[in-house]
Design goal:
- This protein is an all-beta fold.
- The chain has two domains: about 130 residues, no CATH class; about 70 residues.
- Helices cover about 5% and strands about 50% of the residues.
- It is elongated.
- It starts with about 30 loop residues before the first strand and ends with a strand.
- About 30% of the residues are buried.
Length: about 240
């Protein structure tokens, strides 16, 4: 299982190995793997739903025949990936999405997956709350801590004349403060700080390497994150 963008994340390759099985040996169990990270401010919420076989060395395979619902919003299947023979050709790293699910800070989201066989996987996540960011003249950055947040992604961007953001720094931190090294700045001008606060589900799954967190009935994670931006002017 592989997850993470900081903006998730989750690139899986599909391999099919054909072989005859001894009829006296029980078929290995199949497990559904859910990788969902809801992110505030994103116009498209994405999900990666795969299937793994126990005692099998093949990579997880995409699943395209389930029903995924989050807070009464039905996710659509991403048609931009096509299974071809023994491999998979894809242009995106997700196989389900929604353009109509609005992710709000502090809100609880409930997930339900129903398979063709009638099996059900459920999950719940509470999106971290909004918070304020402060920065002093010595480039010490601080923000409000939250009870259900144990990990943050700290990023710094430079904006060009066209409004495009170029990353200068990306680092995962486990405290609600960070000191920026002035050496990353090329000169005086406006810069953007972005802090992504991940919920406990994501932390336990990725950092603590749990098999599942935030879901019942399957493997993987159903988590959420809030992204906060702050503009600052740096003098050099």
């Amino acid at each position: 299982m592989h997850f993470l963008k900081i903006y998730l994340l989750f690139l899986f390759f599909f391999m099919i190995h054909g072989c005859e099985r001894d009829p006296t040996v029980p078929e290995p169990e199949e497990s559904l793997v859910v990788n969902i990270l809801l992110i505030t401010g994103e116009s498209r919420q994405k999900a990666v739903i795969t299937k793994v076989v126990s005692n099998d060395h093949t990579e997880p395979s995409y699943v395209d025949d389930i029903s995924l619902i989050i807070n009464d919003i039905h996710f659509k299947r991403n048609e931009d990936y096509v299974i071809r023979g023994v491999g998979i050709d894809f242009s995106w790293d997700y196989n389900y999405y929604s353009d109509s699910l609005e992710v709000t800070p502090g809100k609880i989201y409930r997930m339900k997956i129903i398979t063709l066989e009638g099996d059900t996987i459920t999950g719940q996540t509470k999106v971290p709350n909004d918070f304020d960011i402060s920065i002093d003249d010595d480039l010490h950055v601080q923000w409000e801590s939250q009870k259900n947040v144990k990990a943050y992604k700290f990023s710094v961007y430079k904006k060009d004349d066209s409004g495009n953001l170029f990353p200068l720094l990306d680092e995962v931190v486990f405290a609600n403060n960070y000191h920026i090294d002035s050496g990353i700045f090329s000169g005086s001008g406006p810069y953007w700080i972005k802090i992504t606060a991940f919920d406990e589900n994501f932390y336990e799954y990725v950092v603590k390497e749990k098999d599942q967190y935030g879901i019942t009935g399957g493997l993987g994670v159903f988590g959420s994150a809030v992204e906060i931006y702050k503009n600052c002017y740096i003098k050099k």
